[in-house]
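The protein record quoted in full:
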Amino acid sequence: MVKYQIFLSSVSKELKSERDTVIKRLIETNNCFPIAMEFFPAYENTLKLLYRYLTESDFYVLILKDSEGTPIKKNRVKLYLEIEKEHPEIIPCRERFCENTGREIEDLTYTQIEYIFAESLNLKTLAFVYEGDSESKSDRIKKFNGESFSHSVKGWKDANALANGIVDAINFPEEDEKYSELGWIRRKNEPTLCKMRAAGIREISLNGYGFGEKLSKKLKGAKELDLFYTTGRQFIVTNQSTLASFIASGGKLRFLCGFPNEDFLSYVAAVEEEKFGERKDIHKEFELVIETLQHIYSSAYAKCKEKNCEDKIGEILVANSRTMFRTSILGVKYSKNEMWGWITLTLPPEKSVDMISIELNYPSEHNEENLLKTVFAHFDGVWKISEKEGTVFSIDRNTKIDSILNKQTPSIFATNEETVLNDNIFDNEEAKKLWVSKFENARKKMKTHKGNTTLIEVAAQHPLKDGTSPDTEFEARLKTAFSIWKEETGNGRTVEIYVPGSVHLDTEGDPEINSLAYAGREYLIKLGIPEEIILADDLNEKYDSERNWKGVYNSADECYIAAQYFKEKNFDKLICICSPNQVMRKTLLYINQEILPYVFSVPVKKMFHSPMDEIFTTIPYILFKDNDCQGENSEFARNSRIERMPDFASKKNK
């Protein structure tokens, strides 16, 4: 059972009977141990004793009536200043109190000094103010403190009401997180608890359950957030809104992770292969994380611009961890040398989502045994190495991911001609022969399609606006589809429109309300296109039984579904509407399906797909490694579902 130490602060002569009643009631509760001046032994420096008892207390209870108490006078000032010299954190609290009240140190009463000490120690503070006559609670507080203060204040009229009020206020449930560090426990458990508290351990849970919920609150007033992850994809994507608010408030984010040019990510993938039976292309996660961090910065900039404080925006820095130390770290730093965070003990092949997390704090610079202090020392050490090696990059609205990849380039992004030609999967001559053959075959097949019918495929784009309706880029493509539909039907052709896209995860990692297909379909209907010619979720699911993968989560899925329907209904023309940066990718995927599409690109100011990613990553991947991205072991298919498909792991898609 937890017992709380309560420091009672009041003018003892004025409130002797009331204090006796309160002390008796607190002892009777069996979970409170009261401390009051009448308990103090005769001691030359009573002020020092006061401070010591306050440091050992869990709650500071201030009881006010009429008297302010006895000033310490000049002969005690020297003794008081000795305490401030030893504990300088008291000084700003005392200066603020004296400024509010207009008093000098020798004019301060013992009760007021107790209050100043409690403030400097950040003790849980409760105030009980007499309200039995014409003088109000606020008047009494101002008389004592010079101004109203932010602590909990309750009134009392007699000793019993006072005692009941204090007992009710202190009777907190043990599981309440706000008070998890307070109180005493049985002596037999004390050594273990003391060691844990000395190490800064607050709580242990699976995968930091509950810690993430505290993050938004913990970041308020923080100066720096340090992250150390393998790639950090899940954390960064899930906490975009929280991180954007932190950067907008002037916070600094330092992010250590594995870079694609290092063996680290390859080793992690190889270890995971032993358990999961495949080698996941973990390098792709790095690009997603960088793009998401850029989106976070842009969101923060927009917040600052709205408030006309762009010059106060914080910064995002990314550095190469170059390490197999896979334990995940999150640390928050404040201006007063306080810190908070957690570590997750990740041991390959297990992932952080399956492992134990430990919540840590560091409230005092005097504790050398604190684990969080050691964690930050490790982080700073790795960060300094990255600075020396020139692998620290700033992320802002204008950051180009290729500027990072050009310096940190894994083999799959290789631009050195000799490297490309020496790798079998990048055999350009063989690949060219293969794709020339595919192209000629598609030309022949297209000649067999006779008729006067057009299928328009509108490449969907996530995320949706508020999880329900098309955002800017998707909306622009749908408007283009409307224009093409009018032109095609005006020429006497029969037209059907396919809007692909299943339900995706939003930027916070939660399932969106509508599927992309449904959102696009409703938008086209509002534009005036007949409902019966629009294909959406029904076509998304039509061929699932024949596929290795369920749902529509990437451009390859879109092309596969559209191609199957095109062949089944024997259309003679396929029009694809997509991003300018998707044109070649979509063309290749359709050629692989024996179709030559008419491709219309729709540019917007800010596009989701990166041209550098298309040129150096996606197109080489389709050309040389995975022609249709639909096979059972397709990395492209799997990774897109990990990033976008709700409950992908539980659905056990192959």
Q: What stands out?
A: Residues 283-306 form the longest helix (24 residues).
